[in-house]
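Hello K.,

You asked for the raw outputs rather than the summary table, so here they are, unedited. I folded two proteins back to back in the same session to keep the settings identical. This is the first:
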Amino acid sequence: MTTVRDGDFVLLYLNEKKRWLVRVKEGMEFHTHRGIVKLGEIIGKPFGSYIRSSLDFEFHVLPPTIGDHIVNIRRPTQILYDKDIALVLFRLGLRSGSLVVEAGTGSGAMTAALANAVRPEGHVYSYEIRREFVEIATKNLTKMGLETYVTIRNNDAKLGFDEENVDAAFIDLEDPWEVIDPVHRVLKAGHLLASFSPTLNQVEKVVEKMREGYVDIDTVECLVRSIRVEKGKTRPRTLMIGHTGYLTFARKVLGRNTQAARESSS
Protein backbone atom coordinates (compact mmCIF):
# COMPACT_ATOMS: atom_id res chain seq x y z
CA MET A 1 0.00 0.00 0.00
CA THR A 2 1.76 3.15 -1.23
CA THR A 3 -1.15 5.52 -1.90
CA VAL A 4 -4.18 6.44 0.19
CA ARG A 5 -7.51 4.87 -0.75
CA ASP A 6 -11.03 5.88 0.19
CA GLY A 7 -11.75 4.26 3.59
CA ASP A 8 -8.11 3.93 4.67
CA PHE A 9 -6.89 5.01 8.08
CA VAL A 10 -4.08 7.56 7.98
CA LEU A 11 -1.98 9.30 10.60
CA LEU A 12 -2.16 13.05 10.14
CA TYR A 13 1.11 14.32 11.61
CA LEU A 14 1.45 18.00 12.48
CA ASN A 15 4.34 17.83 14.96
CA GLU A 16 5.75 15.57 17.69
CA LYS A 17 2.91 16.50 20.05
CA LYS A 18 -0.02 16.68 17.61
CA ARG A 19 -1.04 13.73 15.46
CA TRP A 20 -4.42 12.21 14.70
CA LEU A 21 -5.57 8.83 13.45
CA VAL A 22 -8.42 9.43 10.99
CA ARG A 23 -10.33 7.47 8.37
CA VAL A 24 -10.25 9.03 4.92
CA LYS A 25 -13.67 9.51 3.33
CA GLU A 26 -14.64 11.41 0.21
CA GLY A 27 -16.50 14.61 1.13
CA MET A 28 -15.49 14.50 4.82
CA GLU A 29 -13.54 17.16 6.70
CA PHE A 30 -11.31 16.95 9.77
CA HIS A 31 -11.28 20.04 11.99
CA THR A 32 -8.19 20.99 14.02
CA HIS A 33 -6.83 24.07 15.76
CA ARG A 34 -4.57 24.47 12.72
CA GLY A 35 -7.38 24.54 10.23
CA ILE A 36 -9.67 22.18 8.33
CA VAL A 37 -8.28 19.22 6.40
CA LYS A 38 -10.40 18.01 3.49
CA LEU A 39 -9.99 14.26 3.75
CA GLY A 40 -11.19 13.57 0.23
CA GLU A 41 -8.17 15.43 -1.12
CA ILE A 42 -5.88 12.85 0.52
CA ILE A 43 -7.24 10.02 -1.65
CA GLY A 44 -4.63 9.05 -4.23
CA LYS A 45 -1.80 10.83 -2.46
CA PRO A 46 1.31 8.77 -1.67
CA PHE A 47 2.01 8.03 1.98
CA GLY A 48 4.72 10.34 3.26
CA SER A 49 3.38 13.35 1.36
CA TYR A 50 1.54 16.25 2.98
CA ILE A 51 -1.71 18.15 2.67
CA ARG A 52 -2.34 21.78 3.58
CA SER A 53 -5.14 22.80 5.92
CA SER A 54 -7.45 25.76 5.41
CA LEU A 55 -5.01 27.81 7.54
CA ASP A 56 -2.09 26.73 5.32
CA PHE A 57 -0.47 24.36 7.83
CA GLU A 58 1.22 21.22 6.50
CA PHE A 59 -0.03 17.84 7.75
CA HIS A 60 2.06 14.84 6.72
CA VAL A 61 0.05 11.80 5.66
CA LEU A 62 1.58 8.66 7.20
CA PRO A 63 0.57 4.97 7.24
CA PRO A 64 -0.49 4.08 10.80
CA THR A 65 1.22 1.25 12.66
CA ILE A 66 -0.51 -1.21 14.97
CA GLY A 67 0.86 0.93 17.80
CA ASP A 68 -0.90 4.01 16.43
CA HIS A 69 -4.17 2.10 16.35
CA ILE A 70 -3.74 0.73 19.88
CA VAL A 71 -3.15 4.11 21.54
CA ASN A 72 -6.27 5.48 19.83
CA ILE A 73 -8.74 2.70 20.61
CA ARG A 74 -11.73 3.06 22.91
CA ARG A 75 -10.53 2.00 26.34
CA PRO A 76 -12.85 1.21 29.26
CA THR A 77 -9.78 -0.10 31.09
CA GLN A 78 -6.17 1.04 31.22
CA ILE A 79 -4.26 -0.44 28.29
CA LEU A 80 -0.66 -1.60 28.39
CA TYR A 81 1.95 0.83 27.12
CA ASP A 82 4.01 0.06 24.03
CA LYS A 83 7.12 -0.54 26.14
CA ASP A 84 5.40 -3.42 27.96
CA ILE A 85 3.64 -4.78 24.88
CA ALA A 86 6.87 -4.91 22.87
CA LEU A 87 8.70 -6.77 25.62
CA VAL A 88 5.89 -9.34 25.94
CA LEU A 89 5.87 -10.03 22.19
CA PHE A 90 9.65 -10.41 22.13
CA ARG A 91 9.95 -12.62 25.19
CA LEU A 92 7.08 -14.91 24.18
CA GLY A 93 8.78 -15.51 20.82
CA LEU A 94 5.60 -15.04 18.80
CA ARG A 95 5.53 -15.46 15.04
CA SER A 96 3.06 -16.21 12.26
CA GLY A 97 1.40 -19.52 13.10
CA SER A 98 1.65 -19.21 16.89
CA LEU A 99 -1.42 -20.06 18.96
CA VAL A 100 -1.94 -17.87 22.02
CA VAL A 101 -4.39 -17.83 24.93
CA GLU A 102 -5.07 -14.60 26.76
CA ALA A 103 -6.83 -14.17 30.09
CA GLY A 104 -8.40 -10.72 30.36
CA THR A 105 -9.28 -9.11 27.04
CA GLY A 106 -10.21 -5.70 28.40
CA SER A 107 -10.35 -3.15 25.57
CA GLY A 108 -8.46 -5.51 23.25
CA ALA A 109 -5.20 -3.54 23.10
CA MET A 110 -2.89 -6.43 24.00
CA THR A 111 -5.14 -8.77 22.04
CA ALA A 112 -4.56 -6.67 18.94
CA ALA A 113 -0.79 -6.70 19.43
CA LEU A 114 -0.79 -10.48 19.90
CA ALA A 115 -2.96 -10.98 16.80
CA ASN A 116 -0.76 -8.72 14.71
CA ALA A 117 2.29 -10.75 15.75
CA VAL A 118 0.85 -14.18 14.91
CA ARG A 119 -1.06 -13.41 11.71
CA PRO A 120 -1.78 -14.60 9.09
CA GLU A 121 -1.37 -18.26 10.13
CA GLY A 122 -1.74 -17.94 13.91
CA HIS A 123 -4.64 -17.22 16.22
CA VAL A 124 -5.40 -15.65 19.59
CA TYR A 125 -8.03 -17.04 21.95
CA SER A 126 -8.92 -14.36 24.47
CA TYR A 127 -11.09 -14.87 27.56
CA GLU A 128 -13.12 -12.04 29.06
CA ILE A 129 -15.78 -12.46 31.73
CA ARG A 130 -17.43 -9.05 31.23
CA ARG A 131 -19.77 -8.92 28.26
CA GLU A 132 -19.44 -5.15 27.77
CA PHE A 133 -15.67 -5.52 27.39
CA VAL A 134 -16.15 -8.29 24.83
CA GLU A 135 -18.30 -5.96 22.73
CA ILE A 136 -15.85 -3.07 22.96
CA ALA A 137 -12.83 -5.26 22.18
CA THR A 138 -14.62 -6.81 19.20
CA LYS A 139 -15.32 -3.35 17.76
CA ASN A 140 -11.71 -2.27 18.32
CA LEU A 141 -10.30 -5.39 16.64
CA THR A 142 -12.66 -5.01 13.70
CA LYS A 143 -11.60 -1.38 13.29
CA MET A 144 -7.99 -2.56 13.03
CA GLY A 145 -8.82 -5.41 10.64
CA LEU A 146 -7.64 -8.07 13.10
CA GLU A 147 -10.93 -9.76 14.01
CA THR A 148 -10.15 -12.74 11.72
CA TYR A 149 -7.20 -13.72 13.89
CA VAL A 150 -8.97 -13.53 17.26
CA THR A 151 -11.65 -15.53 19.02
CA ILE A 152 -13.03 -13.83 22.12
CA ARG A 153 -14.73 -16.15 24.58
CA ASN A 154 -17.10 -14.59 27.10
CA ASN A 155 -15.90 -17.08 29.73
CA ASP A 156 -13.95 -17.08 32.97
CA ALA A 157 -10.38 -18.22 32.28
CA LYS A 158 -10.13 -19.44 35.88
CA LEU A 159 -12.47 -22.27 34.91
CA GLY A 160 -10.11 -23.44 32.17
CA PHE A 161 -9.37 -22.94 28.49
CA ASP A 162 -11.00 -24.80 25.60
CA GLU A 163 -7.76 -24.88 23.60
CA GLU A 164 -4.89 -27.38 23.77
CA ASN A 165 -1.16 -27.27 22.98
CA VAL A 166 -0.87 -23.51 22.65
CA ASP A 167 2.47 -21.81 22.04
CA ALA A 168 2.16 -18.97 24.54
CA ALA A 169 -0.11 -17.41 27.15
CA PHE A 170 -0.67 -13.92 28.51
CA ILE A 171 -2.51 -12.99 31.72
CA ASP A 172 -3.79 -9.54 32.66
CA LEU A 173 -6.12 -10.04 35.63
CA GLU A 174 -6.40 -8.74 39.18
CA ASP A 175 -5.74 -12.26 40.48
CA PRO A 176 -3.46 -13.88 37.87
CA TRP A 177 -2.39 -16.66 40.23
CA GLU A 178 -5.85 -18.17 39.80
CA VAL A 179 -5.11 -18.84 36.11
CA ILE A 180 -1.60 -20.31 36.41
CA ASP A 181 -2.84 -23.91 36.67
CA PRO A 182 -5.39 -23.60 33.82
CA VAL A 183 -2.61 -22.20 31.61
CA HIS A 184 -0.31 -25.05 32.60
CA ARG A 185 -2.85 -27.57 31.34
CA VAL A 186 -2.96 -26.12 27.81
CA LEU A 187 0.51 -24.64 27.28
CA LYS A 188 3.13 -26.66 25.43
CA ALA A 189 5.95 -27.93 27.64
CA GLY A 190 8.91 -25.57 27.61
CA HIS A 191 6.86 -22.67 26.28
CA LEU A 192 6.31 -19.31 27.92
CA LEU A 193 3.69 -17.59 29.99
CA ALA A 194 3.65 -13.84 30.68
CA SER A 195 1.67 -12.09 33.40
CA PHE A 196 1.14 -8.34 33.91
CA SER A 197 0.51 -6.92 37.40
CA PRO A 198 0.55 -3.32 38.65
CA THR A 199 1.56 -4.16 42.24
CA LEU A 200 4.28 -6.21 43.89
CA ASN A 201 1.76 -7.94 46.13
CA GLN A 202 0.24 -9.49 43.03
CA VAL A 203 3.68 -10.43 41.72
CA GLU A 204 4.56 -12.25 44.94
CA LYS A 205 1.43 -14.39 44.73
CA VAL A 206 1.77 -15.18 41.04
CA VAL A 207 5.45 -16.14 41.35
CA GLU A 208 4.72 -18.37 44.33
CA LYS A 209 2.12 -20.18 42.25
CA MET A 210 4.39 -20.41 39.21
CA ARG A 211 7.05 -22.23 41.19
CA GLU A 212 4.86 -25.34 41.22
CA GLY A 213 5.14 -26.04 37.50
CA TYR A 214 7.38 -23.47 35.84
CA VAL A 215 11.06 -22.54 35.67
CA ASP A 216 13.10 -19.59 34.43
CA ILE A 217 10.77 -17.25 36.32
CA ASP A 218 11.71 -13.62 35.78
CA THR A 219 9.96 -10.42 36.88
CA VAL A 220 10.92 -7.13 35.25
CA GLU A 221 9.84 -3.51 35.17
CA CYS A 222 10.32 -1.76 31.85
CA LEU A 223 11.12 1.98 31.90
CA VAL A 224 11.57 4.15 28.81
CA ARG A 225 12.93 7.70 28.82
CA SER A 226 12.76 9.93 25.75
CA ILE A 227 15.61 12.28 24.85
CA ARG A 228 15.07 15.84 23.71
CA VAL A 229 17.55 16.38 20.88
CA GLU A 230 18.56 19.96 20.05
CA LYS A 231 21.99 21.12 18.97
CA GLY A 232 23.95 22.05 22.06
CA LYS A 233 21.00 21.29 24.39
CA THR A 234 20.39 17.55 24.09
CA ARG A 235 19.16 16.06 27.37
CA PRO A 236 16.55 13.67 28.79
CA ARG A 237 13.01 14.97 28.65
CA THR A 238 11.57 16.32 31.91
CA LEU A 239 8.55 14.04 31.76
CA MET A 240 8.59 10.29 31.20
CA ILE A 241 6.32 7.28 31.49
CA GLY A 242 7.58 5.64 34.66
CA HIS A 243 5.96 2.75 36.46
CA THR A 244 3.09 1.05 34.66
CA GLY A 245 3.36 -2.45 36.03
CA TYR A 246 5.49 -5.57 36.41
CA LEU A 247 5.87 -8.33 33.85
CA THR A 248 6.55 -11.86 35.02
CA PHE A 249 7.71 -14.52 32.56
CA ALA A 250 8.02 -18.27 33.13
CA ARG A 251 8.52 -21.50 31.16
CA LYS A 252 6.29 -24.50 31.70
CA VAL A 253 7.89 -27.77 32.80
CA LEU A 254 6.36 -31.21 33.21
CA GLY A 255 5.64 -32.25 36.77
CA ARG A 256 6.19 -30.26 39.92
CA ASN A 257 9.26 -28.01 40.13
CA THR A 258 10.39 -29.44 43.44
CA GLN A 259 13.74 -27.67 43.52
CA ALA A 260 12.11 -24.23 43.21
CA ALA A 261 9.56 -25.19 45.85
CA ARG A 262 12.32 -26.18 48.28
CA GLU A 263 14.28 -22.97 47.61
CA SER A 264 11.21 -20.76 48.14
CA SER A 265 10.44 -22.36 51.48
CA SER A 266 14.00 -22.25 52.80
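The second followed immediately with the same parameters:
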Amino acid sequence: MTDWSTLREEACRVLQCPDPAEKARLSVEIAQAWRGGEFAETGDAHPPERPARPDHPELRPPRDMPRRRVNSPTGRIAFIHAIAHIELNAIDLAWDLIARFGAPDMPKKFFDDWVDVARDEARHFSLLAGYLEAHGAAYGDLPAHDGLWEAAAATTDDILARLALVPLVLEARGLDTTPMAMEKLTAAGDEKAVGILSVIAREEVAHVAAGVRWFEEICRYRKLDPVETFQSLVRSRFKGELKPPFAKAARDAAGFTPEYYEPLSAGSG
Protein backbone atom coordinates (compact mmCIF):
# COMPACT_ATOMS: atom_id res chain seq x y z
CA MET A 1 0.00 0.00 0.00
CA THR A 2 1.23 3.50 -0.86
CA ASP A 3 2.34 5.65 2.07
CA TRP A 4 0.10 8.67 1.43
CA SER A 5 0.77 12.10 2.89
CA THR A 6 -2.13 14.60 3.21
CA LEU A 7 -4.60 15.39 0.45
CA ARG A 8 -3.36 18.93 -0.13
CA GLU A 9 0.25 17.71 -0.28
CA GLU A 10 -0.79 15.05 -2.78
CA ALA A 11 -2.55 17.78 -4.77
CA CYS A 12 0.74 19.67 -4.93
CA ARG A 13 2.49 16.49 -6.09
CA VAL A 14 0.16 16.39 -9.09
CA LEU A 15 0.68 20.10 -9.76
CA GLN A 16 4.45 19.63 -9.71
CA CYS A 17 4.40 16.66 -12.11
CA PRO A 18 5.46 17.80 -15.61
CA ASP A 19 4.52 14.63 -17.51
CA PRO A 20 0.88 14.76 -18.70
CA ALA A 21 0.31 10.99 -18.70
CA GLU A 22 1.82 10.64 -15.23
CA LYS A 23 -0.21 13.63 -14.00
CA ALA A 24 -3.38 11.88 -15.17
CA ARG A 25 -2.33 8.53 -13.70
CA LEU A 26 -1.43 10.09 -10.33
CA SER A 27 -4.75 11.93 -10.24
CA VAL A 28 -6.76 8.74 -10.62
CA GLU A 29 -4.60 6.88 -8.10
CA ILE A 30 -4.89 9.62 -5.46
CA ALA A 31 -8.63 9.98 -6.03
CA GLN A 32 -9.20 6.25 -5.63
CA ALA A 33 -7.15 6.18 -2.43
CA TRP A 34 -8.92 9.21 -0.96
CA ARG A 35 -12.40 7.93 -1.81
CA GLY A 36 -11.42 4.46 -0.59
CA GLY A 37 -10.43 5.81 2.82
CA GLU A 38 -6.72 4.96 2.53
CA PHE A 39 -5.93 8.39 3.96
CA ALA A 40 -8.11 11.14 5.40
CA GLU A 41 -6.02 14.13 6.48
CA THR A 42 -6.44 17.25 4.35
CA GLY A 43 -3.35 18.97 5.78
CA ASP A 44 -1.74 22.16 4.57
CA ALA A 45 -0.06 23.03 1.28
CA HIS A 46 1.88 25.62 -0.67
CA PRO A 47 0.85 25.18 -4.31
CA PRO A 48 3.18 26.38 -7.06
CA GLU A 49 2.40 29.60 -8.91
CA ARG A 50 2.04 27.53 -12.09
CA PRO A 51 1.77 23.78 -12.55
CA ALA A 52 4.70 21.95 -14.07
CA ARG A 53 4.43 21.43 -17.82
CA PRO A 54 6.35 19.53 -20.50
CA ASP A 55 8.46 21.42 -23.03
CA HIS A 56 5.64 21.13 -25.55
CA PRO A 57 3.08 22.27 -26.59
CA GLU A 58 4.11 25.80 -27.41
CA LEU A 59 1.72 28.14 -25.58
CA ARG A 60 0.26 31.06 -27.51
CA PRO A 61 -2.32 33.76 -26.73
CA PRO A 62 -5.86 32.57 -27.58
CA ARG A 63 -6.11 35.15 -30.36
CA ASP A 64 -3.13 33.57 -32.15
CA MET A 65 -4.64 30.11 -32.36
CA PRO A 66 -5.90 28.95 -35.78
CA ARG A 67 -9.48 27.78 -36.20
CA ARG A 68 -9.88 24.01 -36.06
CA ARG A 69 -12.29 22.45 -38.58
CA VAL A 70 -13.32 18.86 -37.97
CA ASN A 71 -14.22 17.92 -41.54
CA SER A 72 -10.71 16.60 -42.22
CA PRO A 73 -8.50 14.13 -40.33
CA THR A 74 -5.87 16.79 -39.59
CA GLY A 75 -8.56 19.19 -38.42
CA ARG A 76 -9.99 16.58 -36.07
CA ILE A 77 -6.55 15.88 -34.62
CA ALA A 78 -6.10 19.62 -34.02
CA PHE A 79 -9.53 19.83 -32.39
CA ILE A 80 -8.96 16.83 -30.11
CA HIS A 81 -5.50 18.19 -29.23
CA ALA A 82 -7.11 21.46 -28.15
CA ILE A 83 -9.65 19.63 -25.96
CA ALA A 84 -6.86 17.49 -24.47
CA HIS A 85 -5.04 20.69 -23.51
CA ILE A 86 -8.18 22.00 -21.81
CA GLU A 87 -8.60 18.76 -19.88
CA LEU A 88 -4.96 18.76 -18.78
CA ASN A 89 -5.43 22.26 -17.41
CA ALA A 90 -8.66 21.13 -15.78
CA ILE A 91 -6.78 18.42 -13.87
CA ASP A 92 -4.49 21.05 -12.41
CA LEU A 93 -7.33 23.49 -11.76
CA ALA A 94 -9.15 20.93 -9.61
CA TRP A 95 -6.04 20.07 -7.59
CA ASP A 96 -5.08 23.75 -7.28
CA LEU A 97 -8.53 24.49 -5.86
CA ILE A 98 -7.94 21.82 -3.21
CA ALA A 99 -4.37 22.86 -2.45
CA ARG A 100 -4.95 26.62 -2.50
CA PHE A 101 -8.40 26.96 -0.97
CA GLY A 102 -9.01 23.72 0.92
CA ALA A 103 -8.83 25.17 4.40
CA PRO A 104 -9.00 22.69 7.30
CA ASP A 105 -12.48 23.92 8.27
CA MET A 106 -13.90 23.10 4.84
CA PRO A 107 -16.45 20.24 4.92
CA LYS A 108 -15.22 16.86 3.70
CA LYS A 109 -17.78 17.08 0.91
CA PHE A 110 -15.79 19.98 -0.57
CA PHE A 111 -12.70 17.82 -0.87
CA ASP A 112 -14.69 14.83 -2.14
CA ASP A 113 -16.30 16.91 -4.88
CA TRP A 114 -13.08 18.35 -6.25
CA VAL A 115 -11.18 15.07 -5.96
CA ASP A 116 -13.94 13.54 -8.10
CA VAL A 117 -13.60 16.38 -10.61
CA ALA A 118 -9.83 15.88 -10.80
CA ARG A 119 -10.32 12.15 -11.38
CA ASP A 120 -12.83 12.77 -14.16
CA GLU A 121 -10.61 15.33 -15.89
CA ALA A 122 -7.71 12.88 -15.75
CA ARG A 123 -9.80 10.19 -17.43
CA HIS A 124 -10.94 12.68 -20.06
CA PHE A 125 -7.34 13.62 -20.83
CA SER A 126 -6.33 9.96 -21.11
CA LEU A 127 -9.21 9.23 -23.51
CA LEU A 128 -8.22 12.17 -25.71
CA ALA A 129 -4.52 11.26 -25.58
CA GLY A 130 -5.47 7.74 -26.63
CA TYR A 131 -7.39 9.13 -29.61
CA LEU A 132 -4.36 11.18 -30.67
CA GLU A 133 -2.07 8.16 -30.34
CA ALA A 134 -4.44 6.03 -32.42
CA HIS A 135 -4.23 8.66 -35.16
CA GLY A 136 -0.44 8.95 -35.20
CA ALA A 137 -0.22 12.08 -33.05
CA ALA A 138 0.49 13.00 -29.44
CA TYR A 139 -0.32 15.72 -26.97
CA GLY A 140 2.28 18.46 -27.41
CA ASP A 141 2.53 18.11 -31.18
CA LEU A 142 0.53 21.29 -31.80
CA PRO A 143 0.48 24.73 -30.17
CA ALA A 144 -2.11 25.50 -27.51
CA HIS A 145 -3.37 28.56 -25.67
CA ASP A 146 -2.94 29.44 -22.00
CA GLY A 147 -6.32 31.05 -21.37
CA LEU A 148 -7.48 28.63 -18.68
CA TRP A 149 -4.43 29.08 -16.52
CA GLU A 150 -4.53 32.84 -17.05
CA ALA A 151 -7.99 32.73 -15.43
CA ALA A 152 -6.54 30.70 -12.56
CA ALA A 153 -3.67 33.15 -12.09
CA ALA A 154 -6.15 36.03 -11.92
CA THR A 155 -8.13 34.36 -9.11
CA THR A 156 -5.55 33.10 -6.63
CA ASP A 157 -6.78 35.56 -4.00
CA ASP A 158 -10.39 34.45 -3.59
CA ILE A 159 -12.18 31.12 -3.93
CA LEU A 160 -15.39 32.86 -5.05
CA ALA A 161 -13.53 34.51 -7.94
CA ARG A 162 -11.96 31.18 -8.88
CA LEU A 163 -15.32 29.38 -8.84
CA ALA A 164 -17.00 32.15 -10.79
CA LEU A 165 -14.44 32.25 -13.59
CA VAL A 166 -13.42 28.62 -13.93
CA PRO A 167 -16.35 26.23 -13.43
CA LEU A 168 -19.12 28.82 -13.87
CA VAL A 169 -17.78 30.69 -16.91
CA LEU A 170 -15.16 28.59 -18.68
CA GLU A 171 -16.39 25.07 -17.92
CA ALA A 172 -20.01 26.10 -18.40
CA ARG A 173 -19.00 27.33 -21.84
CA GLY A 174 -18.05 23.75 -22.64
CA LEU A 175 -21.63 22.73 -21.93
CA ASP A 176 -22.70 25.19 -24.63
CA THR A 177 -20.17 24.29 -27.32
CA THR A 178 -19.79 20.52 -27.02
CA PRO A 179 -23.17 19.52 -28.57
CA MET A 180 -22.41 21.44 -31.77
CA ALA A 181 -18.93 19.89 -31.93
CA MET A 182 -20.48 16.44 -31.54
CA GLU A 183 -22.88 17.17 -34.41
CA LYS A 184 -19.99 18.14 -36.67
CA LEU A 185 -17.98 15.07 -35.69
CA THR A 186 -21.01 12.87 -36.31
CA ALA A 187 -21.37 14.41 -39.78
CA ALA A 188 -17.68 13.65 -40.37
CA GLY A 189 -18.25 10.01 -39.38
CA ASP A 190 -15.86 10.10 -36.40
CA GLU A 191 -17.77 7.92 -33.93
CA LYS A 192 -14.75 7.50 -31.64
CA ALA A 193 -14.41 11.24 -31.09
CA VAL A 194 -18.18 11.59 -30.60
CA GLY A 195 -18.09 8.87 -27.94
CA ILE A 196 -15.31 10.61 -26.03
CA LEU A 197 -17.06 13.98 -26.17
CA SER A 198 -20.32 12.42 -24.99
CA VAL A 199 -18.55 11.16 -21.86
CA ILE A 200 -17.01 14.59 -21.28
CA ALA A 201 -20.31 16.41 -21.86
CA ARG A 202 -22.16 14.20 -19.39
CA GLU A 203 -19.57 14.47 -16.64
CA GLU A 204 -18.95 18.20 -17.06
CA VAL A 205 -22.53 18.83 -15.90
CA ALA A 206 -21.52 17.46 -12.50
CA HIS A 207 -18.41 19.65 -12.49
CA VAL A 208 -20.40 22.81 -13.13
CA ALA A 209 -22.86 21.63 -10.45
CA ALA A 210 -19.97 21.40 -7.97
CA GLY A 211 -19.01 24.94 -8.88
CA VAL A 212 -22.55 26.19 -8.30
CA ARG A 213 -22.89 24.25 -5.03
CA TRP A 214 -19.73 25.64 -3.47
CA PHE A 215 -20.16 29.14 -4.87
CA GLU A 216 -23.59 29.31 -3.24
CA GLU A 217 -22.38 27.68 -0.01
CA ILE A 218 -19.53 30.15 0.41
CA CYS A 219 -21.79 33.08 -0.47
CA ARG A 220 -24.18 31.95 2.27
CA TYR A 221 -21.29 31.74 4.73
CA ARG A 222 -20.17 35.26 3.78
CA LYS A 223 -23.78 36.53 3.76
CA LEU A 224 -23.59 37.49 0.07
CA ASP A 225 -26.22 37.21 -2.62
CA PRO A 226 -24.92 34.52 -5.03
CA VAL A 227 -26.38 35.98 -8.23
CA GLU A 228 -25.22 39.53 -7.53
CA THR A 229 -21.79 38.30 -6.41
CA PHE A 230 -21.32 36.13 -9.50
CA GLN A 231 -22.24 38.97 -11.83
CA SER A 232 -19.96 41.43 -10.01
CA LEU A 233 -17.02 39.02 -10.15
CA VAL A 234 -17.50 38.25 -13.84
CA ARG A 235 -17.79 41.93 -14.74
CA SER A 236 -14.66 42.82 -12.78
CA ARG A 237 -12.47 39.82 -13.57
CA PHE A 238 -13.53 38.24 -16.86
CA LYS A 239 -12.34 39.75 -20.12
CA GLY A 240 -15.23 39.85 -22.54
CA GLU A 241 -18.90 38.92 -22.47
CA LEU A 242 -20.58 35.56 -22.07
CA LYS A 243 -21.50 34.27 -25.50
CA PRO A 244 -24.91 32.78 -26.28
CA PRO A 245 -26.48 30.48 -27.27
CA PHE A 246 -26.47 28.80 -23.87
CA ALA A 247 -27.18 25.10 -23.35
CA LYS A 248 -30.03 25.87 -20.96
CA ALA A 249 -30.98 22.24 -20.28
CA ALA A 250 -27.42 21.25 -19.34
CA ARG A 251 -26.94 24.41 -17.27
CA ASP A 252 -30.26 23.84 -15.51
CA ALA A 253 -29.23 20.24 -14.77
CA ALA A 254 -26.14 21.69 -13.05
CA GLY A 255 -28.29 24.06 -11.00
CA PHE A 256 -26.91 27.03 -12.96
CA THR A 257 -30.05 29.00 -13.72
CA PRO A 258 -30.40 31.80 -16.31
CA GLU A 259 -30.69 34.55 -13.68
CA TYR A 260 -26.95 34.13 -13.12
CA TYR A 261 -25.64 34.43 -16.65
CA GLU A 262 -28.21 35.89 -19.05
CA PRO A 263 -27.76 39.48 -17.85
CA LEU A 264 -24.04 39.13 -18.67
CA SER A 265 -24.51 37.77 -22.19
CA ALA A 266 -23.42 39.53 -25.35
CA GLY A 267 -26.31 41.60 -26.67
CA SER A 268 -28.18 41.67 -23.37
CA GLY A 269 -27.92 45.43 -23.24
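The radius of gyration is 18 Å.

Happy to rerun anything if the numbers look odd on your end.

Regards,
P.
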